[in-house]
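[Q] Does anyone have a clean structure-token version of this?
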Amino acid sequence: MPAIVQIQSLSKTYASGHQALSTVDLEIEEGEILALLGPNGAGKTTMISIICGIVSPSTGRVLVAGHDIVDEYRITRELIGLVPQELTLGAFDTVWNTVNFSRGLFGQKPNPAYIEQVLKDLSLWDKRESELRELSGGMKRRVLIAKALSHEPKILFLDEPTAGVDVELRQDMWKLVRRLNDSGVTIILTTHYIEEAEEIADRVGIINQGKLLLVEDKASLMHKLGKKQLQIELRAPVAAVPESLAAYKLEASADGCQLTYTYDTQGERTGITALLQDLHAAGLQLKDLKSSQSSLEEIFVSLVSAP
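[A] Here you go.
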């Protein structure tokens, strides 16, 4: 089965000369949750805007469910829902009218029961007759999500959907995302909350300076690039790591009570057994052992900061 979104050699250079995207190739599978991570200005929003038909590409091609986003714009746009970063809403219309009107813009027949369910899912039902100008920032964010879902899209783009919102909305948002995904909706999100991507995404893409550095299954990425560390707590502090242990490149804590050993999870041997034997031979007595693995955030930082 072909991917639901196919991005082929996509580039974007603005009139100012700034290249926001540089030859990006990406396939997004139907029904997955893909998290796009990258620092500000990395090109995440530009890529989403091109797929959604808001920004024109300089070079390359994008297919959505096999349809070209330029030649078959009307078809592709009907398949996509977008929650933008900015709170782009009017002031005097009601929540109900705004969401209902958005559905009509995509040529969908009225479906009050569906709109009611969306508003209830987003805790907006009690605000349905409120004017938009009366809502808090968090409630306006909920309305943007409701608008994006109003025409029952097959693909949902969430561009920093929880930036600056309260914890309650964030939790509601991810519950709704999981329900939508369970129903078959493909989710693509950008977020600065890397722990959220780590929790919810199937795959992770990392963008920096307009280039897609990698796209990897989340578990596989953390297994490949994540480092494991063994924290060795000693019964007595050491002034320095003994020379006999130099090959292990141990890091000692400031008080000398703990040694940290970093090893490759992909290696045939971790070296832990030999290390423990050599610690004993060096006369060091162990009090406790604890292992830990790199988080997605640590992997992300290491990739975008690499020269």
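[Q] Thanks! Anything notable?
[A] The mean pLDDT is 84.
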